UniProtKB/TrEMBL annotation, chains A, B:
Domain HTH tetR-type: 15-75
Protein keywords: DNA-binding
One annotated GO molecular function: transcription cis-regulatory region binding
InterPro entries assigned: Homeodomain-like_sf, HTH-type_TetR-like_transc_reg, HTH_TetR, KstR2_TetR_C, Tet_transcr_reg_TetR-rel_C_sf
Protein origin, superkingdom: Bacteria
Protein name listed in UniProt: Transcriptional regulator, TetR family
DNA-binding region of this protein: 38-57
DNA-binding is among the record's keywords: yes
Record organism: Geodermatophilus sabuli
Pfam families: TetR_C_24, TetR_N
DNA sequence: CCGGGACGTGAACCGTCGTTAACATCCCGC
DNA sequence: GCGGGATGTTAACGACGGTTCACGTCCCGG
């Protein structure tokens, strides 16, 4: 299909418009919150007027939806892949999961912020889909944490997982103040200590 | 001053209106985000029409401002007080800080959520004041963490503090699934492990 | 008992913002 | 080189939401 061709061309090859828009929007949404950012602001950020956006997205909500869906999919896919590649040792799996999440959080503090702040301003359908993906990602962690703490029930493992997410996803609050490598090491060490405690 | 008298009377004695409104607003803001909540919604939540709110608050922003200021002040005051009461041992200080923050996070998940999601939708002046209070609270933690890790610089301690906040403040994401005492124990243990790692 | 302040109400005002419409422009393939 | 699709622009529409207004009611102190 020419559809797919075009899509591949525009989406991947050149980082063109649509992608620029998504990136700029992510930045703005993270800074001010999606509801506080106007279509005109997003347009201006890529050197275009507001309504021009509707050539690339059906609506503002659709923009936010695609953004959140991508993040959730990336996290889930990455998590599954890392765990699978880590062999059978739960501790090794935990370490690779932590490293993965830390990298993501350091590379995309803006996405982290938007991800859990603006989920609520999403149309019900999309919100549900994002939540499904999030839940599956959490379950990956729950599995690993469960094997690491055989006596703990799933509810405890889930709470532990959320706590570790909170720890690692603190990057938007403490960003840039520390060299990346140092920050990565610190977060990884803290996360592992917390997860195995 | 009659001012103070009245304030004390209305604010403390009876949990009347103004207070009801603040509580209801906190709940709604936490669920949907302050910008997605209309004045009418807040009014309806306390059995009153929208405009009635302007008998108690100068504006919607003023409501949010008072909410965030109170939280920040409560945290700072509580933190300072606990540390002072804990003697000289940095580990004892850390433990009491953690217990304090865990209690707060478990008692007020809604406030936690609003606190760092809606700070951005605050008039510049109020936002700055809230940030000042936050900073001072963080500094309390930084002091303790610094004494606990003598070789670490302040930037590291600050990052550590934010990470621990993220860990403990994960309560809105994993609320209610675990009995409170169990959740408190889990979070405290994880936080201590992370902070001392 | 009566005058005023606290508290509410419904209606109207007005700015903001997402979205659409009508109209250009540019460029690529036939 | 010509027609059409992709991409933008400006202007306008319509809804929503914060805020104000004019008007009631209730109650309490002199």
């Amino acid at each position: 299909m020419t559809d797919v061709d075009t899509a591949l061309h525009t989406d991947a090859a050149r980082p063109s418009r649509r992608e620029q828009i998504l990136r700029a929007a992510a930045q703005l949404f993270a800074e001010r919150g999606s509801r506080a950012v106007g279509v005109d602001d997003v347009g201006a950020a890529v050197g275009v007027t507001g309504p021009a956006i509707y050539r690339h997205f059906a609506s503002k909500d659709a923009m936010l939806a695609e953004m959140l869906l991508r993040i959730s999919e990336r996290l889930l896919a990455g998590g599954v892949e890392r765990v699978a590649a880590a062999g059978d040792d739960p501790l090794a799996q935990l370490r690779t999961l932590i490293a993965f999440q830390v990298d993501f959080a350091l590379d995309n503090p803006a996405l982290i912020t938007v991800h859990d702040r603006d989920l609520g301003s999403l149309p019900d359908g999309d919100a549900a889909q994002v939540r499904r993906l999030q839940r599956r990602y959490v379950e990956v962690w729950v599995g690993v944490l469960g094997r690491l703490h055989p006596s703990a029930d799933d509810a405890t493992s889930r709470a532990r997982a959320h706590a570790v997410f909170g720890l690692i996803n603190s990057t938007p609050h403490s960003a840039g103040r520390l060299p990346r490598a140092q920050m990565a090491g610190l977060l990884a060490a803290m996360a592992e200590a917390a997860a195995t405690s």
